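Retro notes (design track)

What went well: tokenization of the new backbones is finally stable.
What didn't: we kept losing track of which sequence belonged to which structure.
Fix going forward: every design gets posted as structure first, then sequence, in one message. First example under the new rule, 65 residues:
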């Protein structure tokens, strides 16, 4: 799995961080998503899918590697 984010779309809701804190974080100054792991291990794939599903701005893009 390859994870990409669109920081321009991010609204800083933080749902991604709650769903997959090993993969996503937020910038201190404005809450915009920061990608920690663009190719997470298989054990985190479901959490990353969940994070993408709950993102209100659809700022998380997933591709199969």
């Amino acid at each position: 799995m390859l994870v990409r984010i669109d920081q321009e779309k991010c609204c800083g809701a933080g749902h991604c961080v709650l769903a997959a804190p090993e993969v996503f974080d937020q910038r201190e100054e404005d809450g915009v998503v920061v990608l920690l792991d663009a190719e997470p291990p298989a054990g985190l794939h479901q959490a990353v899918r969940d994070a993408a599903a709950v993102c209100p701005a659809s700022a998380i893009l997933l591709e199969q590697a």
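Added context from the reviewer: The chain has a mean pLDDT of 97.
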